[in-house]
Amino acid sequence: MSSHTPGAPVFAPPAELPDWARRSVDLANPRLGARAIAVSDDFFADVSRMLNPEPAQFVPGKFDTNGKWMDGWESRRKRTAGHDWAVVRLGVKGVVRGFDVDTSHFTGNYPPAVSIEACVSESDEADALQAAAWTEILPATACGPNSHHLFACDSAQPWTHLRVNMYPDGGIARLRVYGRPVGSLAAAAPGALLDLVALENGGRALSWNDASFGSSAAALLLPGRGMNMGDGWETRRRREPGNDWCVIALGAPGSVDKIEVDTAFFKGNYPDRCSLQAAYVEGGTDRSITTQSMFWQTLLPEQKLQMDAVHTFTEQIAQLGPITHVRFNIFPDGGVSRLRVWGRLDTR
User: Measured at the alpha carbon of residue 73, what is the angle toward residues 69 and 78, in degrees to the nearest 5?
Assistant: First the structure.
């Protein structure tokens, strides 16, 4: 084999996520519309790669016109005062719970420290971002080579944009921004039919009993259809009585007109049946709401499912009036790509 032929890629291992990250959404996921909109320097590796939802990879022997190809954001070696930075627009406005600053495969070229600032801006234009009030939500913090760095954040305000600072230069393979979306359903037209559980509308997966394969139950709420079998919620094979479930908070209270359950790509492992329960909940914690959910009223009685198909339910839906939460049950186990709960906002 020629010495110029790239070798097989080496993929970074996943991070061992703390609970606050596992129960959150990556607000910087391009699937939600996140993107890097400005950067001080990305000579060696384009800043857009930093937001790629796939694991970072290292390809031995792969070079481009500027040098070694790296899977992430990498600036050139700084020979002047200052530091490098990148501005990222979050996919949805949200409250940030913490970060994974991943330097996988960056060994002699990682940044010794990073900090992160945040702002709220209605525009991506440079003038608007310059005029915005930026708040430091992660102070300058040391980083090491070839590692996931999990940093908690105690900011309670929702943000739209982040500025990632590297001191003084270097490379970041991936940036994950774990948080809770804050929807904009209040601006929806009166009476409009909306997906009340969509992430972009503020829907949130509160809890689930298992997610052994694929993503967490939050993947059910992502935009679009799933891209593959790993892009959904899949539980282990159940070897005991019972069924699997997840509890989801709507972006805002509303009445349900239509439910869609999409088993895209799930063929030999789709659930046999599904059902939904629902309630209008005021107060409580994620844990207490999960406990209550066992006793909620039936919104959709058990329905037979098929492999790799979109199932639409309308006439089968019970008229419960406005609700705030649903419990999605699958029998006995399996994988579902997407859940849509279409309805109209409660105007009370």
Answer: 95
Cα separation, 77 vs 84, in Å, equals: 10
Count of CA atoms in the C-beta half-sphere (13 A) of 313: 23
Kindly list the structural domains of the chain, giving each domain's residue range(s) and its CATH number in brackets, ordered by start.
10-181 (2.60.120.260), 185-345 (2.60.120.260)
Cα–Cα distances in angstroms (integers) from residue 116 to residues 152, 165, 203, 212, 320, in the given order: 12, 6, 26, 32, 44
What is the rounded CA–CA span in Å between residue 129 and residue 89?
11
pLDDT in tens, 267-276: 999 999 999 9
Cα(first)–Cα(last) distance of the chain, in Å?
71
b or e along 46-65 (b: 16 or more beta carbons within 10 Å of the residue's beta carbon)? ebebbbbbebbbbbeebeee
DSSP 3-state of 293: helix
CA–CA dist 288, 186 (Å, integer): 26
Could you tell me whether strands 194-195 and 10-11 are parallel, antiparallel, or unpaired per DSSP bridges?
Answer: unpaired
CA distance 88 to 32: 13
CA distance 295 to 281: 12
Phi and psi at 335, nearest 5°, equal -130, 140
pLDDT in tens, 309-327: 999 999 999 999 999 999 9
Residue 31 near residue 176 (C-beta atoms within 8 A) = no
Spell out the residues 6+ positions from residue 197 whose beta carbon is closer than 8 angstroms to its own. Answer: 203, 220, 221, 248, 250, 251, 326, 339, 340, 341
Q: How many Å separate Cα 92 from the centre of its chain? A: 10
Let me know if 261 is exposed, middle or buried by CB neighbors in 10 A (0-12, 13-18, 19+). buried
Q: 69-104: per-residue pLDDT in tens?
A: 999 999 999 999 999 999 999 999 999 999 999 999
* Dihedral pair phi/psi, residue 317, rounded to 5°: -80, 130
